[in-house]
Design a protein that fits this description.
Blueprint (H helix, E strand, L loop, with lengths): L11 H13 L3 H4 L3 H23 L4 H39 L4 E5 L7 E5 L8 E5 L8 E5 L1 E5 L1 H4 L5 E4 L6 E2 L4 E4 L1 E6 L7 H9 L8 H30 L6 H11 L2 H20 L2 E3 L2 H7 L4 E5 H5 L5 E7 L5 H12 L5 H14 L6 H4 L2 E3 L7 E6 L2 E7 H8 L17 H21 L3 E7 L2 E9 L6 H10 L3 E5 L4 H11 L3 E3 L4 H13 L4 E5 L5 H6 L2 E5 L4 H6 L2 E3 L7 H38 L17 H25 L8 H33 L4
The structure holds adenosine-5'-triphosphate, potassium ion (K) and magnesium ion.
Magnesium ion binds next to helix 11.
Catalytic activity: K(+)(out) + ATP + H2O = K(+)(in) + ADP + phosphate + H(+)
GO molecular function: ATP binding; ATP hydrolysis activity; magnesium ion binding; P-type potassium transmembrane transporter activity
Keywords: ATP-binding, Cell membrane, Ion transport, Magnesium, Membrane, Metal-binding, Nucleotide-binding, Phosphoprotein, Potassium, Potassium transport, Translocase, Transmembrane, Transmembrane helix, Transport
C-alpha cells in the first residue's frame, strides 16, 4: 500500500487560498448551515451597525467597541478558515486524481462487427458501447470486461504500480476509466458515461462537493444551537440586572459575553473534523462515499467477509480431475470441459485450460455444437450445458447432489431413467464422492462435482490462496473487540479450512446472497453495527445493507456501487485503519466538544465580575483573575475565544490520537485532558492576553 505523505496543516499552498475562502464563506447563506457561527456573524453585523451609528453621533467607547467587533469578525473568519483548510487538503488530493483523468480516445467497436472499430473521443462514449482496449491503451471509461483477460496498471487511482488481472466473467471483471492495459486485449462494455465515472465520483468526494452532514453531526448541531438559545436568553436578562442597580451595559459587551459563552470552539471546528476524517481515509486508499459510513466504522461490532476474492486472492484455478471409481479420468475431463466451454468465470476458464494441458482436449466451437448453455448463478451454484440430448452439470457438491438425488435415490436431472439396481450405484458413488470432496475441502480447495445425465463422474479441484499477512491482522481486529465472520457460498469443510487458515472467529458456509443479507439483518436487530467486505455481484445486497459496506476495488461494479466505501488496495483487513479513523473522528469531536464547553467556566470568572463589579461590588469576590480592567477582561476573553479556534485547527484536522485501551479508559482519559484542560487553559490564556494588551495599552 503506497500512502502519500500527509500535507502539513499550514502548508502555504493550502493556507493562502483558504484565507480567501474564509471571506467568501461569510455569505449568510453559507453561514446559516452552521447555526452557532451564524449567530456570531449576526452579532458582529449588529455591533458593526451600532458602531457606525456611534461613529456618526460621536457617542460610546469607540476604541473599545472597534476592537471587540474586530475580534467578533475574526471569530467567524477563523471558523471559516478551519473548514477551508480541511477542504483545501481534499482539493490537493483531488488535483492529483484529476491528472489521471487525461483526455483519451476510445476504440469503439462497430455495432455488428467483431473487429472493426472507429476511434472516438472517450467523452462521447455512452453506456452500453463496446470498446476494444489493447496493450498500452488507457481504458476510456468505467466498464465490464465482456471478453478476454488483461493485466492492468491501476496506479492512477490506487497509487500501486503492481499490475492487476482483469477478466471477463466472475468477480474481477470491472475496469476503471483512466487505468492502463499493460498486456493483451480486452473488450469492455461501458457502464458509466463521461462525468459520472468512478474517478469523477472520487474527485467529487475528496473535494467535499458531495459532503452531507451526518445524523451525528446534525444532532450535535441541534444541541449546540439549543445551548446558544439558552445563552441568548441568559444574556438578554443581564440588562435588567444592570438597570436594577441603576446602570447600563453597552450592547457590544453583551454580544461579546454571549459569543464567549456559546460553544464557538466546537461550532467552528465541527465541519473541519468531519472533512478531515474522510481525507484521512483517502490517504489510506479508502474512499468513503459518506461521512456517516466513517462514523459507523468507529463503532463496528461485527465484520463479515466474503471468502473468494476478499479473504483469498480470488483466482480459483482447476488443478486436478478426480474421477469416481470406474470412471475414466479423461471422460471426467471431457465432461468438465464441455460444461465450461461457455462458462466465462475464472473457474470455468481454468477448467478448459487444465483439460487442454492434461489431455489435449481441444476447445470446440459452441456455434457448431447446437448446445444450450446454462450459466453459473450464485443461487443454483451450478453451471453446465445441454448438448446432443445429454445434459452436463458442474457445481457445488451439495447443490449437485440435491440435483442428481444424492439425498433421495431418485435422480432429478432430465434425460435419466433409473434402473432398479441404480439406487445402490448412486449411493456408493455418493459415498465415494463425499470422500473425495472432504479431502479437497480439508485442504482449503473448492470441490466442484461433475455429472452427466444424472450420473456422477467425479470432482474438479479448484485451488485458491489466502491473501498474505491476513491472520495477524484479524488478530488485531479481535483485539479491538470486533468479531470477524467469513461468509461463503462454498461448502462447510472448505470454509472451515480457509477460516482456520485466515484466523476468522466464525464462518457461514453454503450461503446464498439472501443468507448474507439475513445474517446482517439479524446482527443489526441485536443492536450491532455491521461492516461487510465483499467483491462480488452476489455480495451487493449485503454491502448495501451493512452499516459499513467496503467493496474491494478488484470487485464488480455492482459491488462497488452498493457499498459505502471502496478499498482501492482490495485489502479486507484495511478495516482496522477504517475503524481507527472512525473512532478517531468520534473521539476528536467528543474531545473538542468537552473542551469547548469546559472553556466557559473561565469566561464566567473573567467577564461576569468585570461587567457587574461597578453595580454589585460584592461580586469582587468572584474576580479571582484580577484582570487589569473590565474592558480588558471582555476583550481578553473574546480574543482568547477566537485564537483558541486557530490553535485547535491542527488537532481537528489530525485527530486526537487513538489508543486501543478500551472505551471506558479512553473516556476517562479524554475527560481529564480535554475537560480539565478546557477549564484551566482559558484562565492562563485570558490572563496572559490581559497582561499583554494592558502592557501595550490597547485598553
Ligand atoms: N463457474 C462455476 N460453475 C459451477 N459452479 C461454480 C462456479 N463457480 C463457483 N461455483 C460453485 O458455487 C459456489 C458458490 O459460488 P461463489 O464462490 O461465487 O459464492 P460466494 O458466495 O461469492 O462465495 P465466496 O465467498 O467463495 O466468494 C462455489 O463455492 C462453487 O462450489
Ligand atoms: K465560546
Ligand atoms: Mg464471491
Amino acid at each position: 500500500m503506497s500512502k502519500p505523505a500527509e500535507t502539513g496543516v499550514f502548508d502555504p499552498q493550502i493556507v493562502w487560498p483558504a484565507i480567501g475562502h474564509a471571506f467568501a464563506k461569510l455569505h449568510p447563506m453559507v453561514q446559516i448551515r452552521n447555526p452557532v457561527m451564524f449567530v456570531v456573524e449576526m452579532g458582529a453585523v449588529l455591533t458593526t451597525l451600532i458602531f457606525l451609528r456611534d461613529l456618526v453621533t460621536g457617542s460610546g467607547h469607540l476604541a473599545f467597541s472597534f476592537q471587540v467587533i474586530l475580534w467578533l469578525w475574526f471569530t467567524v473568519l477563523f471558523a471559516n478558515f478551519a473548514e477551508a483548510v480541511a477542504e483545501g487538503r481534499g482539493k490537493a488530493q483531488a488535483d492529483a486524481l484529476r491528472k489521471a483523468r487525461t483526455q483519451t480516445d476510445a476504440k469503439l467497436l462497430a455495432p455488428d462487427s467483431h473487429s472493426s472499430y472507429e476511434i472516438v473521443p472517450a467523452t462521447s462514449l455512452k453506456v452500453g458501447d463496446v470498446v476494444i482496449v489493447e496493450a498500452g491503451d488507457i481504458i476510456p471509461s468505467d466498464g465490464e470486461v465482456i471478453e478476454g483477460i488483461a493485466s492492468v496498471n491501476e496506479a492512477a487511482i490506487t497509487g500501486e504500480s503492481a499490475p492487476v488481472i482483469r477478466e471477463s466473467g466472475g468477480d474481477r471483471s470491472a475496469v476503471t476509466g483512466g487505468t492502463q492495459v499493460l498486456s493483451d486485449q480486452i473488450r469492455v462494455r461501458i457502464t458509466a458515461a463521461a462525468g459520472s465515472t468512478f474517478l469523477d465520483r472520487m474527485i467529487a468526494l475528496v473535494e467535499g462537493a458531495q459532503r452531507q452532514k451526518t445524523p451525528n453531526e446534525i444532532a450535535l448541531n441541534i444541541l449546540l444551537a439549543g445551548m446558544t438559545i439558552i445563552f441568548v436568553l441568559a444574556v438578554a436578562t443581564i440588562p435588567s440586572f444592570a438597570a436594577y442597580a441603576g446602570g447600563a451595559i453597552p450592547i457590544v459587551s453583551l454580544v461579546a459575553l454571549f459569543v464567549t459563552l456559546i460553544p464557538t470552539t466546537i461550532g467552528a471546528l465541527l465541519s473541519a473534523i468531519g472533512i478531515a476524517g474522510m481525507n484521512r481515509l483517502v490517504r489510506f486508499n479508502v474512499l468513503a462515499m459518506s461521512g456517516r459510513a466513517v462514523e459507523a466504522a468507529g463503532d463496528v461490532d461485527t465484520l463479515l467477509l466474503d471468502k473468494t476474492g476478499t479473504i483469498t486472492l480470488g483466482n480459483r484455478q482447476a488443478t486436478e480431475f478426480l474421477p469416481l471409481h470406474g470412471i475414466d479420468e479423461r471422460e471426467l475431463a471431457d465432461a468438465a470441459q464441455l460444461s465450461s466451454l461457455a462458462d466465462e468465470t475464472p473457474e470455468g476458464r481454468s477448467i478448459v485450460v487444465l483439460a487442454k494441458e492434461k489431455y489435449g482436449i481441444r476447445g470446440r466451437d459452441m456455434g457448431e455444437l447446437h448446445a444450450h448453455f446454462v450459466p453459473f448463478s450464485a443461487q443454483t451454484r451450478m453451471s453446465g450445458i445441454d448438448i446432443d440430448g445429454s445434459s452436463i452439470r458442474k457445481g457445488a457438491v451439495d447443490s449437485m447432489l440435491a440435483c442428481v438425488g444424492g439425498s433421495s435415490p431418485v435422480p432429478t436431472l432430465p434425460g435419466t431413467a433409473m434402473r432398479a439396481s441404480g439406487t445402490v450405484v448412486v449411493t456408493a458413488a455418493v459415498r465415494e464422492l463425499r470422500e473425495i470432496t472432504d479431502r479437497v475441502a480439508k485442504s482449503g480447495g473448492t470441490p466442484l462435482a461433475v455429472a452427466r445425465d444424472g450420473r456422477l463422474l467425479g470432482i474438479v479441484h479448484l485451488k485458491d490462496i489466502v491473501k498474505g499477512g491476513i491472520r495477524e491482522r484479524f488478530a488485531a481486529l479481535r483485539h479491538m473487540g470486533i468479531r470477524t465472520v467469513m461468509i461463503t457460498g462454498d461448502n462447510p469443510m472448505t470454509a472451515a479450512a480457509i477460516a482456520a487458515e485466515a484466523g476468522v472467529d466464525d464462518f457461514l458456509a453454503q450461503a446464498t446472497p439472501e443468507n448474507k443479507l439475513e445474517l446482517i439483518r439479524t446482527e443489526q436487530a441485536k443492536g450491532k453495527l455491521v461492516a461487510m467486505c465483499g467483491d462480488g455481484t452476489n455480495d451487493a445486497p449485503a454491502l448495501a445493507q451493512a452499516d459499513v459496506g467496503v467493496a474491494m476495488n478488484t470487485g464488480t461494479m455492482a459491488a462497488r456501487e452498493a457499498g459505502n466505501m471502496v478499498d482501492l488496495d482490495s485489502d479486507p483487513t484495511k478495516l482496522i485503519e477504517v475503524v481507527e479513523i472512525g473512532k478517531q473522528l468520534l473521539m476528536t469531536r467528543g474531545s473538542l466538544t468537552t473542551f469547548s464547553i469546559a472553556n466557559d467556566v473561565a469566561k464566567y470568572f473573567a467577564i461576569i465580575p468585570a461587567m457587574f463589579v461597578a453595580f454589585y461590588p460584592q461580586l469582587q469576590a468572584l474576580n479571582i483573575m484580577r484582570l487589569s480592567s473590565p474592558q480588558s477582561a471582555i476583550l481578553s476573553a473574546i480574543i482568547f475565544n477566537a485564537l483558541i479556534i486557530v490553535a485547535l485547527i491542527p488537532l481537528a484536522l489530525k485527530g486526537v490520537k487513538y489508543r486501543p485501551i478500551g472505551a471506558g479508559a479512553l473516556l476517562r482519559r479524554n475527560l481529564l485532558i480535554y475537560g480539565l484542560g478546557g477549564v484551566i487553559i482559558p484562565f492562563v490564556g485570558i490572563k496572559a492576553i490581559d497582561i499583554a494588551i494592558s502592557a501595550i495599552g490597547l485598553s
